[in-house]
Amino acid sequence: QTPDWPAAEAAYRLAVEAAPGRAEDWSNLGVSLERQGKLAQALAAHERAVKAGPESAKARFNLGVLLYRRREFSRAAAEFGSAARLDPAAPQAAAWAERAGKHDHDR
Asked: Angle CA(6)–CA(20)–CA(81) in degrees, nearest 5?
């Protein structure tokens, strides 16, 4: 079943309005926007997630994914590296950091 991204966006917008300090809600809003192709809004939501929860590995990882998609490899690698340090049990963050670092060196 395909997720209803516009409905998810609406729900997370309500959530961040009600509790603007919750990094997880900002991060989920960012993902819902990203899935709809609203990349500028997604970036703002992901950056707000990191601001609300600088110790959130999930928020940093999700921001890293979007930055990687935007070909901002240095920034992506930094976010993936932060996510890996914050949650060493999440090996995908370290792998993405390495991948982004390789792309950045290709430039």
From this structure: 85
What global pTM score does this model have? 0.88
Burial of 68 (0-12, 13-18, 19+ CB in 10 A): buried
The residue behind tokens 């340090």 is 85
Nearest residue to 43 (alpha-carbon basis) of 56, 54, 34, 55: 34
Tokens of 38: 């609203």
Distance of CA 94 to the CA centre of its chain: 15
The residue type at 3 = P
Name the DSSP class of 37: T
How far is C-alpha 49 from the chain's CA centre? Answer: 8
Phi-psi region of 25 (alpha: psi -120 to 50; beta: other; left: phi over 0): alpha
Q: pLDDT tens across 16-72, in order?
A: 999 999 999 999 999 999 999 999 999 999 999 999 999 999 999 999 999 999 999
